[in-house]
Every structure is written in structure tokens, then in C-alpha cells.
Design goal:
The protein has helices at residues 47-55, 99-113, 129-143, 172-177, 183-188, 204-216, 236-249, and strands at residues 2-8, 14-20, 25-27, 35-40, 62-66, 71-74, 80-83, 121-127, 158-162, 191-196, 222-227. By secondary structure, it is an alpha/beta fold. Strands 3-5-4-8-9-10-11 form a 7-stranded mixed sheet, with helices on both faces.
């Protein structure tokens, strides 16, 4: 699947920035299909590794969809191309946000979910940059639109972010206040943010602050879970917590 969005070239002309998404890996539910969750990998990874991890989880009622990000130049790597959901230079609070890339990735995720049956609960999750993109998608859902103004049409029921951050966090409150119809979605959307205290890639404080900003903006069901000494990776303890949280928030009955 590819997306092309207009962007300004150096000469002031509108140039097309193409996003060619890679292979999507699907893990079918082992039991009764009750929920579908799109899970987004981290920078430089692909959907395969996480699909293998998710397949081992004791969640027989979830269908997992694990797409692969487009390969694009990444400023953090000096412009060297890598699989990435958006461009990123650094993780400082005032760093530029690649809304164009995030919109394209969030639209790709929404498109992957567009044909799910109406009785299936929909969730989003991700790790690192994938978590950032999942949280960005959650904000788009809450606002009812992408940053480019296009409507966001998928009904999200739960969002998980591991070792990630909230893009454009400093402007979240103003965005929410500017959309009168967002309040109901903001209050009711369950969100779980998990972060290791030993993370040396995406600092722990970014995850913690993202959770605080979400809560202060009105996301009343946003939970932050910390893991002492955990680096920039997941752990059995963290995945156990994700499983129990998803089972509760998605109303899974565990039947096979």
C-alpha cells in the first residue's frame, strides 16, 4: 500500500512525498474472533518480529495485524534511509513533528482496519516509534480527524504504547479544547503506556510526561506503568500486564 501526499519543494513548488509501506503480517485468532489490534514496530524494524511475539501471547480472541513502515530518509540517522513511520530528528519537546509522515502512517493503519466486522473491537498498539504512532492515531480518533483535516473514521476501543512518546504533546490540550465533539471520545478511550526506567533510547521521562499530558488533557482512562531497570525492550512482566489490560478493556472472554 502506498500513499502520496503533497509537500513543498525547495523552489516553492508542490512536490509529492510517496510512502510505500512494506509487508503486513497477520496473526489469526486461535479462538473466537472478538478483537483486532494493529501493532506497530519500532524504528528500523519490520512487522515480522512483533508478529512472532504476539502469536505467543495467551490472547486467543485477538487478530493481530503487524504492518511494516515505509523506508524513508531519517534525520536522526543523518538522512540515511530506514523503516520509519515518520521522520524524527530528536526527541526534545520542541523538535519538529512530521505531521505528514504521521498522517500517512495513521491513514495506513485506519485503512488496514476499515474492513473489520462492525461487532469486532478495534485496538492499536506499538513499540517505540510504533507506540508514538499509535498514540498519534489515538489523538486523531479523539479529534475525529487527521492533522491534515481528513476525517478519522475508525472506532478505536483501546491503545497500548510501550517505550514510546506522544508526538506534539505540548499542543494536545489546545487541540482537544478546540473540538467540541472530542470530549466524549477523550474521556472514554482506554490507554496504557508502559516504560522501563532504564530506557536509554527513549528516556523514561518522555513516557511518564506523555501519560501526564494525556491525563491532564482529559484522557481519564490513561494508565502509566513503569518497570524498574527495564531498557529499550519489552519483558515477560510487561507483556503479561498488556495481556490482562487488553482482556479487560476489550471485554475478551478468553473462550477458544
Amino acid at each position: 500500500m502506498s500513499f502520496a501526499t503533497p509537500s513543498m519543494s525547495a523552489g516553492g513548488r508542490t512536490a509529492s512525498r510517496a510512502f510505500n509501506f512494506g509487508r503486513t503480517y497477520v496473526v489469526k485468532p486461535k479462538g473466537k474472533h472478538q478483537a483486532t489490534v494493529v501493532w506497530l514496530h519500532g524504528l528500523g524494524d519490520n512487522g515480522s518480529g512483533w508478529s512472532q511475539i504476539l502469536e505467543t501471547l495467551p490472547l486467543p480472541n485477538i487478530k493481530w495485524i503487524c504492518p511494516t513502515a515505509p523506508t524513508q530518509p531519517v534525520s536522526l540517522f543523518g538522512g540515511f534511509p530506514s523503516t520509519a513511520w515518520c521522520d524524527v530528528g530528536d526527541l526534545s519537546e520542541n523538535a519538529p513533528v512530521d505531521f505528514e509522515g504521521l498522517d500517512a502512517s495513521a491513514a495506513h493503519v485506519a485503512n488496514l482496519l476499515s474492513n473489520e466486522p462492525s461487532d469486532i473491537k478495534i485496538g492499536l498498539g506499538g513499540f517505540s516509534m510504533g507506540a508514538a504512532t499509535a498514540l498519534y492515531s489515538a489523538v486523531c480518533f479523539s479529534l475525529g480527524q487527521f492533522s491534515n483535516g481528513s476525517p478519522y473514521l475508525v472506532n478505536i476501543c483501546a491503545v497500548v504504547g510501550l517505550s514510546g512518546w506522544l508526538p506534539d504533546a505540548k499542543n494536545l490540550a489546545n487541540k482537544i479544547q478546540g473540538k467540541a465533539d472530542a470530549a466524549g471520545r477523550v474521556v472514554s478511550l482506554p490507554m496504557l503506556l508502559c516504560h522501563g526506567s532504564g530506557d536509554d533510547v527513549v528516556p523514561y521521562r518522555f513516557g511518564e510526561k506523555s501519560s501526564r499530558i494525556l491525563s491532564s488533557a482529559g484522557f481519564q482512562d490513561a494508565t502509566f506503568k513503569s518497570y524498574e531497570g527495564l531498557g529499550h525492550f519489552t519483558s515477560p512482566e510487561e507483556l503479561d500486564h498488556v495481556c490482562s489490560w487488553l482482556t479487560t478493556k476489550l471485554g475478551l472472554d478468553g473462550s477458544s
